[in-house]
Backbone:
């Protein structure tokens, strides 16, 4: 999974509230920390960047007029990609394209194992469910929003007002255009930007290397260095002949982007300047110590516990039946990726003393604030407010998490909950619906109703539901889920397991939610029609509905309070010159810079900046995940390196490290050299970097990238993709 | 456990037959591979060693007259140590002394956790069960033995003849002297040496650092680099006032060794020449590909399977009851150490293509042999013979392993088997007994009968016996253990578990073998008295006795054949100039040399040669095994480094790597600088070195040593052991 396109889903389960004051002083370039919004780039000290090696003008990287190189950077399936030809060719990670290629694979044509290459446009396959978003513009809507968020509002009113305003702004901006808009919150709500993106709906698969290259090392090497993964793939964006976005059609034509990135196969070495653009999902560098404490004491350990148990269930089922193994593999990978992430987060935070450092920062802040009457008036109670907010959160968080996992662990209950809610939401005017149920999201929702079938295994679904139900039946007395107490019947600790079993027995025997055709019918039915079905899962959804609604009210109020307090906290930090000068990542496009750089993650241990093809051979076992395609092994043994040989390494480079500041969502981000040529793709961070979401540590945090020369080498020598290479603008010239 | 004092016990479970031609040509010093017998040191090219940096005369290292520095090197509890004062003070590893200090600990005085320091002789504690052996002489007895091993002997006769001759030589040599003698087989039996060692029976504990220094990193860091363990301890050898060896007595006085080693606290850096002396237990560099294949296909995987299962049983029992956890911890550590070792062995052999390389070597050898009529006559059928030998082994190896683990997994059955056999052996004249039952071993055997109580937990013992019994009941049809089939009753795969349970139920209910007092009585009873007890475990031992005897006959015959064929194989290798020039390790003292040297164990990964105190602090968690004593943390935080600070590292050195060729049994080996001063103690090899037992690989195989400066630093600053430091000869001068 690596740096994942899943960040938003996993993050959403942790109480993480995404968090502007225009910066007053330019930032020294010696600090490579920071994921800079493009519209804040003028705050950067470009003189220092030029001193570090940057050889092009900042306006070539980004400008508000034609977008610059940034116009070539796209968001795709929750990750990042970049146009690399005038004909809509997109380069991104293997793991970003993986589910698309899996969807197209059959037992006969196993594109996952064997790789895939379209030799002409007509051979390209639809990447079902994939969208590609090209940023068109940014508009500051802070005044519109913050003007309406009067201090007198209650937390829930604050949340509702914000939601309503946001929906209105988005709806007006999208009206009659084939764009997708979002209002992004920066700095905990100090600043709001309307981001408008062209939404390309027809994305196709052009080339994907075999799994033995694209996912070499698999789960074992995930988050690890040294790494030897060719984590790349090629997609293509299509639009209607008139240039408008359109669903897949054989009449569609390749999209012509405003900009595309030339690809370098020139030399690259440790110390070289480079920069990155992409869509990092979220960081928590302004999060309060109370939020951190909540995460360390509760959210991470609880999530780890659920994930471990659910993975075990799927693993064991997979061991009994290889067909089940295939179906559950995606869900296991998804849970496992962030299991390792969360474990790394806890280890890393403990090692780096993140909580202690944050507390010291807050003590400093409080002191500065107290010393200045104006600051004291505005922010004197902010930290106390956050402390109280999280103390309150502790009174219902176990229940909140249990409700979340009920819907998430069991696909059938999750679908039933959604169907039931949709039947109620659909009768409301669009602007009064919850955002996920607005017309703009209905097509995607229907598609998920259908696609859910791909991974569904009822027996496993039931075991997973039983696990979460058992957890739910063990909630403390003040956090009981009353309808479950009633429906399951026996709440004694000895009686729960049997009662849960009997309950789920009836559920699965009396529901058609697991049947894709029935489910799609349900999706189009009215509320009364749904209820009349007396379907066991829909009935359970109905019973739980009020619980979810009540929890949503609590979450909304929490979110309303957090929005207010976090905005205050960031404002206080800025005014007191405490904490980072850039806003936390929030899924919007960011610019970062740094160098190609190895690191010493621990005493007596040194990571070189580059891995090599020789290292692939060292790891090769012939068994997944260390099973290179035969063609690669042959080429390596024959030393058929062509001009991809790096004379300093004496070998073909594979992956390299940079000190860029990245995180989940950065997957597939293009890495540029000083001249703005693509030298690689970000696909992961090292284990030491995981806790970097809270505090970037230049000594140990590294971004892991696949080298463009390895991409070209394997395209050329292993996949025989000469036409594809020709379509790109490959720039072999050495840097000055 | 690290490089272990356990090598002999663990090795014995793998069919590994330990393997002279006087070397005709001196060996180039550029190859640091090799564990050289001291009496072969004249074969080494000392000119090259001097060029590498050696600053003393070879005769100062070893000479047959007064022993040289080698006279300071001793064998202690299966590991190695060195005298570091004229008053019998011995330096060795923490893990070598650990069970002695554990034996002396109580809940009130926890010397394991807190460490121990005797401030005067009278405070030193007995190291119960510890012997210290000082080599007195070597005598070549090859002619006596090989002269009697006529080619006409059957394999079993060959084994018996060898055993009888060996016993006779040892018995004559030990007669009336306080020495222990052994006949060591070199080069698979091409050469036999009688080794005579002064046996010191009164060994006392002088100083042991807290577990948080001496075993810092524990199982997690075991076999790993970077390492931060202060794996050292100090013992003292005592003898009777007249200089003879004697059991512990308050009249005994410190032993005055012929030589002792000065301790360096001077500078040390990567590239510095160094040498090592110690007692490496065993290597397999002449083992045939058939032996390797047997190990890879069967012995290692089978041992891994048993170890894993038995560790699981003990782990789970320990989780339920902390007191059980303490009791089983030693056995878990013992099994786990070699579990990790065997897994590393398989991984390493697969990575290094050890089997394939050995096969190629043998193909070369066969070609050379076939081309020369004299060689063809002597060795033409050797490899074919080994092939047949291992093919035959495959027909009974599962049963052999099951019988071995029955006696090993269950302490009670192991004790019963030994008691039963002892009751039969004790009636024979000493020279006709099996070596383990000869008078010279009776005291140690009685002590083991008593000490077994320390770790005994009947419920766990039973579970472990049930596991092994279940395995035994699943043996293939041609390898059944008939008495078990009869006693357990049900041999159907469905019926076995319940039948095994019922069988062990009766066993434990009707036996007193688990009672230490009864057991010691049994030890002194006659065969008839034992049988008359109708003790369930003794009855089981009686039922199994013939099975063990039959298996022993098979093993003896195997060993007789192997002795003949392996000697031929080594002779052929030497004559054909194939394979290493030195003999495999066999537990006798060896000399090796090399350099302080980091390494690159894998692509993009580099290990520095030294770790530092800063690295200890990096790993510190406050929780075992990363819990440094407070005093060490304070000293580190105050940067109270004294003159132990290494100016190049900017910190106190902790451990360092050398490219010395070592293995299990080398634990505690003194590491010398060019002037013969002690710069550290070997305590482990890196993970990459494990498979080095089959083939030393200079690029990746490293010995892990604790730096003498860290020993002195912690003695000085943490333990306050200034008297102890004064007793040693510390040489602070810089090397030229």
Residues:
């Amino acid at each position: 999974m690596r740096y994942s396109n899943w960040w938003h889903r996993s993050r959403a389960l942790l109480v993480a509230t995404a968090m502007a004051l225009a910066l007053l002083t330019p930032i020294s370039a010696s600090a490579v920390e920071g994921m800079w919004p493009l519209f804040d780039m003028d705050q950067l000290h470009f003189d220092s960047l030029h001193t570090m090696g940057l050889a092009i003008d900042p306006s070539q990287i980004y400008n508000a007029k034609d977008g610059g190189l940034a116009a070539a950077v796209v968001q795709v399936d929750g990750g990042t990609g970049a146009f690399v030809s005038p004909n809509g060719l997109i380069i991104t990670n293997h793991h970003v394209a993986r589910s698309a290629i899996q969807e197209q694979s059959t037992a006969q044509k196993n594109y996952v194992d064997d790789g895939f290459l379209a030799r002409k446009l007509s051979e390209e396959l639809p990447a079902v469910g994939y969208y590609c978003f090209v940023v068109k513009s940014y508009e500051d809507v802070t005044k519109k929003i913050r003007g309406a968020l009067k201090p007198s509002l209650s937390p829930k009113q604050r949340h509702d007002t914000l939601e309503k305003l946001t929906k209105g702004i988005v709806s007006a901006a999208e009206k009659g255009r084939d764009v997708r808009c979002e209002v992004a919150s920066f700095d905990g709500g100090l600043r709001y930007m309307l981001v408008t993106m062209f939404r390309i709906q027809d994305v196709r698969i052009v080339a994907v290397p075999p799994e033995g290259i694209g996912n070499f090392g698999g789960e074992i090497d995930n988050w690890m260095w040294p790494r030897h993964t060719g984590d790349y793939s090629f997609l293509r964006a299509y639009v209607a002949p008139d240039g408008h976005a359109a669903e897949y059609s054989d009449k569609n034509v390749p999209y012509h982007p405003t900009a595309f990135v030339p690809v370098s196969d020139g030399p690259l070495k440790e110390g070289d300047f480079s920069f990155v653009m992409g869509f990092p999902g979220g960081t928590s560098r302004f999060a309060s110590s109370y939020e951190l404490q909540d995460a360390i004491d509760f959210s991470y350990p609880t999530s780890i516990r659920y994930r471990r148990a659910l993975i075990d269930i799927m693993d064991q089922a997979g061991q009994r039946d290889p067909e089940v193994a295939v179906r559950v593999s995606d869900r296991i990978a998804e849970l496992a990726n962030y299991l390792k992430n969360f474990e790394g987060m806890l280890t890393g935070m403990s090692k780096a003393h993140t909580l202690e450092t944050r507390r010291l920062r807050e003590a400093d802040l409080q002191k500065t604030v107290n010393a200045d009457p104006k600051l004291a008036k505005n922010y004197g109670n902010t930290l106390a407010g956050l402390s109280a907010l999280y103390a309150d959160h502790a009174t219902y968080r176990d229940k909140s998490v249990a409700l979340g996992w009920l819907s998430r662990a069991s696909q059938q209950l999750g679908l039933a909950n959604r169907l039931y809610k949709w039947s109620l939401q659909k009768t409301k005017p669009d602007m009064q619906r919850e955002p996920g149920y607005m017309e703009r999201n209905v097509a995607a929702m229907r598609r998920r109703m259908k696609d859910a079938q791909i991974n569904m295994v009822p027996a496993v679904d039931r075991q997973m539901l039983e696990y979460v139900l058992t957890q739910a039946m063990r909630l403390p007395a003040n956090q009981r889920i009353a309808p479950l107490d009633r429906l399951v019947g026996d709440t004694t600790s000895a009686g729960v397991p049997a009662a849960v079993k009997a309950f789920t027995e009836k559920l699965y025997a009396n529901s058609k939610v697991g049947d894709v055709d029935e489910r799609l019918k349900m999706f189009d039915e009215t509320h009364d029609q749904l209820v009349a079905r007396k379907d066991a899962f829909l009935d359970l959804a109905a019973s739980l509905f009020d619980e979810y609604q009540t929890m949503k009210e609590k979450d909304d109020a929490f979110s309303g309070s957090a929005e207010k307090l976090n905005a205050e906290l960031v404002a206080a930090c800025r005014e007191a010159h405490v904490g980072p000068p850039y806003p936390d990542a929030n899924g919007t496009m960011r610019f970062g810079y740094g160098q190609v750089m190895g690191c010493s993650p621990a005493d007596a241990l040194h990571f070189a900046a580059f891995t090599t093809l020789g290292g692939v051979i060292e790891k090769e076992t012939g068994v997944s995940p260390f099973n290179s395609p035969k063609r690669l092994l042959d080429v390596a043994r024959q030393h058929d390196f062509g001009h991809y040989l790096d004379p300093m390494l004496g070998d073909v480079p594979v992956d390299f490290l940079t000190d860029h500041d990245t995180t989940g969502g950065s997957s597939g981000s293009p890495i540029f050299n000083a001249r703005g040529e693509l030298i690689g793709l970000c696909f992961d961070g090292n284990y030491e970097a995981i806790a970097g979401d809270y505090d970037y540590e230049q000594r140990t945090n590294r971004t892991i990238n696949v080298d463009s020369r390895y991409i070209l080498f394997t395209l050329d020598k292993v996949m025989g993709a000469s036409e594809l290479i020709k379509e790109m603008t490959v720039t072999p010239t050495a840097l000055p």
Residues 536-575 of chain B form the longest helix (40 residues).
